[in-house]
Amino acid sequence: MHGSLTTRAAIASVSMALFLLALKLFAAAETGSVALLGSLADTGFDVLASLLTLFSVRYAARPADDNHRFGHGKAEALSALIQVVLVIVSAILIGWRAVERLGSNESTAHPEYGIGVSVIAIFATLALLAYQRQIVRKTGSVAIHADHVHYQSDLLLNIAVIIGIALESFLHLRGADPLFGLVIALWLLWGAFRAAQMALDQLLDREWPEARRNQFIEVAMRHPQLRGIHDMRTRSSGVHDFCQFHVWVDPDMTILQAHRIMDEVEEALMQEFPGVEVLIHPDPEGHKDELGYIPSETIEHQDHDHD
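-> structure tokens emitted (307 positions)
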């Protein structure tokens, strides 16, 4: 289900990028606007990035196999990092061109073309952003989120293009267009930084946010026969989430009884956290593992009566 949603979002992104590329190519050639040139360059990289996203989400949606037993979800994070590199290159080129324009006497021609194309791009981008937000909310896809960051910057790029062209062409404020080009370049770098953080979090197996971890623990501890949780570890890979933890149970409990309790805890967690792969290890109450990394919260439990 998640795989088909992210694939459709990636196809929509590719289609939108190609449409905007054609529009901006015409307008940039007619106007010579640096701000519009920056927007064109960004859209060109968006085409490459969107194609990369399409490939990565399709690959990440593949089921686990003997060589990739946790699935292929990290392909999304790798895709996001490549997109970050493309955005950084784009920002550097735009900034360079803006500096060149500031030192010359070039001016923007046919401003109505640049403004008209930018207005069309704004409405088209708003529609795509709304669709991408829905997909990210449903799937948590880091690749679609990175693509979403691109198009957020595109929205601001188009607004900046309109302002820059209008100030220079109609109010005769020389240098306004290349200055807005520099602002666009800086904004792209900021967006790249945010997208890189998300991708690295997945590649380095960053823990879930504390609020989500606490909610997970609270749901698990609703079972009356669990006496504590410890050594909890969480991570994400693409749209897939994983959680493993140890629980304390009555040391006199049989293996069959403990197994039944683990199944009941997993079922409760699946209802609250669908799609999360859960691995539970039962321990006799009070037992602590001494080997390996010991999480800082070593024991997280609620008080239960030992009837």
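Confidence is low (pLDDT under 50) at residues 298-307.
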